[in-house]
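Write out the bound-state structure for sodium ion.
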Amino acid sequence: MIIEPRMRGFICLTSHPDGCAQSVKNQIEYIKSKGDINGAKKVLVIGASTGFGLSSRITAAFGSNAATIGVFFEKPPTVGRPGSPGWYNSAAFENEASKAGLYAKSINGDAFSNEIKKQTLDLIKSDLGQIDLIIYSLASPVRLHPVTGVLHRSVLKPIGQKFTNKTVDFHTGIVSEVSIEPCTEEDITNTIAVMGGEDWAMWIDALKAENLLAEGASTVAYSYIGPSLTEAVYRKGTIGQAKDHLEATAFEITDSLKSIGGKAFVSVNKALVTQASSAIPVIPLYISLLYKIMKEEGIHEGCIEQIQRLFQERLYTGNEIPTDEKGRIRIDDWEMRPDVQEKVAALWKLATTETLPEIGDLIGYKKDFLNLFGFEFEGVDYAAEANEMVAVSSIV
Ligand code: NAI
Ligand code: NA
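---
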């Protein structure tokens, strides 16, 4: 069938298999162009199908020849209806890995559940023995708690007071004011339950209990800080509470891994267009201004550039891993450069529907957004019939 983007609100309902495959190939080429990374050889990526998790899997596999197991929650295609982009990304990744002689298998299901954890542990036991790196890169709006059975929903709200600021609808380019009512106490608890560190710790505990962690194994989860502009709705809002919890959990996991000399890290990454971040009010306007400045300065990065730098210049230099005063790895260093932030803050004041096309990178934002779904890639013939029924046997 011929597949075109079909938008509904902040999501795109369709995705293009060939475009997703192109995106994966481009990322693989980038990693190969940067040379070998002396990294982990047996890697589990939880949240492996899109965004930072997919880039982490690609970096491990094609930078260090690692065997990878990916866990994600994606929709396979059915006749006449494309699958989700993460499904196509993973299918493409597995095909490329297999061509390169690299072990790659994936488990498609709810990573928060006991069943998917058990299935993953069984696969590690039978195929890899022990894991030496676990990347934790889930972004989800809900979590069904495996012990209590409670369905938690995360929210993106300010705490204590109403937040009002500018935002942009990146489809129409209209800049408007948005107000978000403060959250309830329950919202905070729920958001921490979904996006905090409890599930990360559960994964590591389960792996450790079954002796599936190699001596010196490490684990990395991803966090975000961002500027004061977005603080009220992000870092000091409900999601920020969850990130605080995630960051605190890193220390608990490190303690629990003492006996095997293992360590847990949080890496603070740059703001990027992903399915998760497009849904957060205010962030798209910030990103479109940030992109403009970072591109002008020649320091713009996407997920793959960020993760390549994380692996090569932070995790696997052979020296101690550099962290900030709170023990976090920082690859948001270029985003947070004072000169970059000053310029973004100045543009923020000027941003209106009329000025944004000039002062912001709305075009770049839109392209990145469409790229998430496999659209607007060079080298893909979008007028041609696509085969949406891509088949891969290594995804279960
Ligand atoms: P994403 O939406 O691209 O990826 C989320 C991944 O989680 C996908 O592989 C998806 O299949 C998987 N997933 C979601 N629910 C699942 C479930 N129940 N079971 C199994 N898999 C599930 O998100 P993105 O942006 O890559 O986020 C990953 C992490 O990076 C998050 O912790 C996010 O907060 C963090 N981060 C994101 C930034 C951004 O600007 N996008 C910036 C800094 C950190
Ligand atoms: Na991810």
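---
Residues 238-256 form the longest helix (19 residues).
Residues 47, 50-53, 137 surround sodium ion (ligand 2) (CB under 6 Å).
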